[in-house]
Structure formats: structure tokens, C-alpha cells
Sequence to fold (338 residues):
Amino acid sequence: MNEIKECEHFQGADRFFDTCKQLRGKKVGIIGHTQIDGDAVGAQVALFEILKREGCEAFLIETEPGIPEHLEPLYGKYKTYQPQQVQVDEWCVVDCSQASRCGDFFETIRPFLLIDHHISGSPFAVHNFIHPEAAAACEILADYLYQLQYPLSITMANALYAGLIMDTGNYCYNSTRASTLRLGAYLIDQGVQAHNVASWVYNNEPRKKFLLLERFFHSWKFYAEGKICFGFLHDEDYEATGTDMADVEGFVNYPRSLHGVRIAGLVQELAGLIKVSLRSDEPALRLDQVIQPFHGGGHVCAVAFKTTDVLESFWDDLINALQERLKVVEEGVLLYES
Fold:
């Protein structure tokens, strides 16, 4: 395998491992964001193994609404816990831009360590390792491990590889760099069988998810002459299909794939909470900036926000903001710093 160029490495590998050593002998909870995805799971598993080897008693912590069935194989033999089931000395957070995204109980806790790649992220931990140029939190950890030639178990390598392919859309998103692909090759060199990992995370979906997807397809609405497409899911959709918010991973990519659609959205309403997710293939649209008035965050092309307000209270403002952003990009007038 070709070596990764020095200029493409993420800085802080030595500091990261020194920070992990400071947790030796302590009980440590490792948590990701709510509605956990493959990148958060992969980073959790990798950090868990690192801390165990450094002499910590580490715990893998679940977030709401639970672990999607197709991601469970990534944990291997390791057990996961609810936050209230463990008493820990310190917390480590992965793939999370804001402490509140770990759950309401986490808003008053300052974690010891944070690993994140969101452009809208904030350094809310004691020790922060934030690289917005990374395609995934798993890319950061894989690179740190590569730099120090740290031994990887097959469970760790599989989890990191899953995080890479899922957060890069199988290396198709614009966040994919040459070094991202090289890290994928590095993990395969460590024993990952790419077809097995892909089968776990893509070919292991429960039937109920497709019943929910059918309802999602029928809900689509178009704006800005078909350049914006939103799909909607409500309480009754989840109840009728026996699903929850953990089952919607990847849904927003369906309207994103339609010809002519430049901004795709998913609106979920469940138990008084509304979550809005947005995706685009155009970095120039800077969805992370458009979403700021709605107190959301994420990446340049992938953002989300949550609210307990009713949809009517912000919907027109959101659609107008997205249409205005399309207009100024088309006209070559930038309202925001890029």
C-alpha cells in the first residue's frame, strides 16, 4: 500500500495518545450523538479498545433512540449500556458537534475528550481533537492509529472501515480525499473484508424500515421549481410500521438522488419533537451557514436541527432561506463567507 503523504496526516496524534494515557485506572464512558450512525459507532469501538489497552475500565454508551439493528454487528462481542446503568469518572465523546447532541442528561457534563469532524462543532471538552476537513471521525482515528502504527484488532478495523464508507457515501461524497481512500486500503491491509462490512451495514435492514420508507416516498413535496425536495414522517408513520427515528438512516439520500434536486430534506415528527435534516452535493450552498438561525449544525453539505416548536412556526422561514441561498449561488453573489 502507498504510504499516506505527511502533509495529509491530521495533527495531534501524539497528543491524543498522551491524553488517553491520562485516563489510566479510571472508569470512562464513551458516547456518540443521538440517532447514532456508523461513524459514531466505529469511533466508539476504536476508542473503547484504545482506552482498554491503556488500562481504563471503558463502557460503550447507547444514545436515544437506541442502536439500529444493522449497526449492532460492528460492536462485535462488546456490550453496550444505557447512561444510567454506569457510574464513570470521565466521559469521552465521538462524532458530536455539541454536548446536547449526546442527550439532555449531557448538557451539564464537560467531557474529558472529544473527537469530531463537524465544521459547526465547538470545543466543549477538556481535550478536543476536531478536524473539519476529515470525512469522518473514524478517518481521524484511523489516521492517528496509522501514524503510530498502533496494533488494530479485526473488530476495531471493521468498525473504523464501516464508519469511513458510511460517512463518505462509499467514498462518493465531496469530503473524500485521496488520503481517505488510502486509509480505507490501510484498514483492508489490517484484515478488513470489505464485502463483509458492506453486507453488515447495507444488506441487513429490517422489513419494517422499508414499510416506513414507502410512507416516506409518498410524502415528498417540491419547492423552487423542483430544486428542493422534502419528505415527511410523523408519529402515525412510526406507530403503523413499528419503527422509530433510528430506522431513518439514509432516507434523506433518496430525494437527494433525484435529477434536478439540489437540496434534499427529511422532516421527522415524533412525540412532540421535530428533526429537520438537509443534504446537498454542492459545497457552495453552505448549508451549515443557512441553518445557523435555526440553531442547527453539521457539515458543509449535511446539516440538521431539532425543535419542539410546531412546523408552521418556522417552515416558511426555512424554505425562504433555502430558496434565497440557491438564488445567490446561481447569481454568483455570496451572502456568507465561504
User: Anything to note?
Assistant: Residues 95 and 116 are 5 Å apart (CA to CA). The chain is about 35% helix and 15% strand.
